[in-house]
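Fold this sequence, please.
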Amino acid sequence: MIVAGIDVGSLTGKTVVLRAAQQFGMDEILASSIVPTTVKPERTAMNAFNQAIEKANISNTEIDYSVGTGYGRVKIPFANKNISEIPCHGRGAHYLLPSVPIIDNGAQDSKVIRVNEDGKLIDFTMNDNCAAGTGRFIEVMARTLETTLDNMGPFALNSQHPKMITAQCSVFAETEVVSLIADGIPVEDIVTNLTDSIASRIVSLVNRIGLRPDLTITGGVAKNIGVVKSIETKLNLQIKPIPIDLQIIGALGTALFAKEELIEKQAAEKGRKLKKWDF
């Protein structure tokens, strides 16, 4: 069985193509992709899907089942089903790190998710009222500071005299950053406070759901070493690393749901055939 999970976010589209194992076997990630979003979610999904199947060296007709997630999930015309991104991120992280709570910090919002020993969602909390603390916020700040997203993490580790940023809103924070630039404050100091502010928002979500000894983090913001280190300092723990690209965890979880859906579908079809001949 070959299944696909497609995660259409606000900044990127991701796809994971999975060879689903039979009983007692191991699933195999055949390929994955990360592409920029377009103005049409369906085009983003198709771009990510086509790139992934090309990497896997298979055709779209070899995909037995596909599931979509993310903010654009209802716009994926070729997906057999769509599921909310929260259980998908939880399932993907659980597959790699069983029963470890997950921070998912993406472009649009921040979430802290807990799943049970079977990978099923049991609790979550999120901050979706403001862009501050998300990947979109970091992208805007990088542009304001005339640097790149890749530089934001290292900058935060090189600050010697951080300058406090007090604004709690992304719009006002950008205005404050512009003022700090005009005052000649070093970029490293400004970035340190931005990442510290982001980490504080994430930590408040962790505390809201209940801190556990183990914790992992996924999403684009998880690639920012400054934010990760600040979270670890504030929580006094070391975040457990995930061995694959942190941006495809949601797509992986979605592919795993596609596997479950396909198994259930096949079982139901088998049951109908047995019933048909049971006379």
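The first strand starts at residue 2 and ends at 8. Residues 2-97+245-276 form a domain with the Nucleotidyltransferase; domain 5 fold (CATH 3.30.420.40).
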